[in-house]
Amino acid sequence: MFFDGWDDLVRLVVIGVLAYAGLVVILRTTGKRTLSKMNAFDLVITVALGSTLSSALLSQDVSLSEGLLAFVLLCALQYGVTFLSVRSERVQGIVKGEPSLLYFKGQYLDRHLKGERVTREEVLAAVRAVGHGSLGNVEAVVLETDGSFSVVPKLGEDWRAMRTVSGMDMRPKRQPATR
Question: Distance between CA 64 and CA 163 in Å, rounded?
Answer without folding.
Answer: 47
